Amino acid sequence: MTKQLTYGAAALAALSIMAGSVQAQETVIWWDFLSGGDGVRMKQLIDDFNAAHEGEITIDATTLEWGVPFYSKVQTSVAVGEAPDIMTYHASRIPLAVDQGVLQPLTAEDFEAMGVSEADYAPATWDAVTVDGQQYALPFDTHPIVLYYNKDILEANGLLTEDGLPVGLDSREAFTDTLMQLKEAGVQFPLASVTADGNFMFRTIYSLMAQQDGELMTDGEFLAGDNAEKLTNALSVLQEWTNEGLQSTYTDYPATVALFTSGEAAMMINGVWEVPTMTDLQEQGNLFEWGAVELPVIFDHAATYADSHAFAIPANQGSEMTPEKRAAVLEVMGWMAQNSLFWATAGHIPAYGPVTESADYQSMEPNATYSSLTENMIFDPKTPLAGVAGPIFDVMATYFVPTLNGEMDPAEAVDEIVYELNDM
Amino acid sequence: MSNARHREWLIAFALILPFLVIYGLIFVYPTIRMFMLSFTDARLIGEGDWVGLENYTRLPGDRRFGTAFWNTAYFVLLTVVPGTLVALAIALGINRLKGRLQAAILALFFLPYILPVSVVYLIWDWTLNFQFGIAMYLFDAVGLDRIPVFKTTTWFMPAVAFVTIWWTCGFSVLLFLAGLRAIPDEIYEAAELDSSGRWTTFARITWPLLWPVTALVLTIQLISQLKIFDQVYLFSTGGRVNDNLVLVYYIFQRAFQSDQGGRAAAIAVVLFVIVVVVSVLNFQLTRLSGRSR
Known about the structure:
Distance between the termini of chain B: 46 Å
Oligomer: heterodimer
CATH architecture of the largest domain in chain A: 3-Layer(aba) Sandwich
Radius of gyration of chain B: 24 Å
Number of domains of chain A: 2
Order of helices and strands of chain B: HHHHHHHHHHHH
Number of helices of chain B: 12
Number of strands of chain B: 0
Number of domains of chain B: 1
């Protein structure tokens, strides 16, 4: 009898301890839109986090469809209080998100709890998550576009410098000349360009605009003043390359990557997120020697368009987050920032300064070659109309595709773009 | 007597009540809300302020609405009648076959219909892709210039219409086959005795007797093609989106990309009215022309 009682008491004690630990354990519901090579790496980071916080915090992650589906779901789920505790967000979409009331603001105390501060971030990156002086997300990375190049082809044609970089990165004439020489040497596509996808080309074209200090939006007006002319200039360069047969036409995203990796194209302008594709192919012995470098300076100075993956906390309607839960979410954000070195293997440039300054990162290739562009990055204009898969994208794409493939005059395309942008 | 009728009425009401409730909840109520929404400046979520007819009055001057309207009309023109004729031709052919062969051929024509739209998109993208599409190698082989089918406004709608007919005509074929089998053999035997030719048999017997099915197929096609969205969305991704707009796509753009629920609702109401008017007209016309025969 006493024995039974003792057992009973022990069982009860055990139960209450377990119950206690269950209460202390926070489950953080996580949504992201990372389904490619970087998605695999994010899952690794999440597993590492869970292992390091066993018994305290568990991340319960779900990957959703990138783009409009993701952001529509966030908006509707916030409205009914069913959004996750943390989610990935494009910095470019933050102005729209603030307008919709989808995000919780992050305070100075929040950043302190994460163990990060403004000084750890590049000013442009920090500014990208700021609306009217208030931060709404923690930047996790920046993902610019870069110039990929096939070292074997360039070298065979004497177009590789001693540092292993392509010749002619400093002016429009020089770069066009490099492309011309490749063409004459019998390379079918000197440059692989995503000419069938205007959404994608926005990144290249906006970079070229920024190289002339052009801005898409000034004082709430699109392409005011000589900005329209700068867009025309940017489109003209790309159309010239098409007319001269220097770049692939009507090529969609997967085809562009395939043209480059199969060696049919000597160079390619694409996002840093394709770095894992190249690394993996090379490890399997299926790729030539390659490199990636900051975009060539076609106009006045270097500039590259970038967006940033950031972490944000949804402003769930009608369900207050407990302080314990919020603390757990902040711990997740801080930990991810401090452990973002691994994220660099996905090609992205970690946003957290101490990581990019570390010796480990500095010796990482090809990241180290192109990380110089962090100083020349430009982000989307701050308007609710901007952002990946936003309304600006559709207008641009509609006129970029015919222009880049030589069907439409650049000046005419810009007139139409100005009309439609201001008509939204 | 009246008591019994009363009870009968009650039972009938009880039996249709579940349907009425569900129909009211998931169709009538949202439709009424859509009409109300179209008079406000509401966003995708939440209420908005009353703006009267503004969402409607701006439509005639809205360039994207114009594009969407005419593209939808063009698409209907390219698919409804041609799609019905193709299905009829296939059904007539299959009807001549017998036994297992007939079942096998029917299955072949029906197969695309069971594919999800995303698979249909991938198959045709692989076929017509400008750089790597199989069809482009055929073009090269015969010495034709490659055509960026889904990236030019000239080819976009005809190509999507072609894919849509390929994808959906299996269902119409089934309806036509059912209609053909319902025509009694005796009539054909009698025609044969009168030594009626093939064309006369078709024009005087098959076509008139099949007319109710044809009218049904036309109506179904018309309504579903007016509501086209998926294929256009998938095939124009990244391409010339605003040149390829159709009405449902424009509703989607306004509601989900621009966060303008009110303006989206106004376009939805316009489409609703178009579908109602056109399908009633179509039904009446086909009925009348059926009678006059």
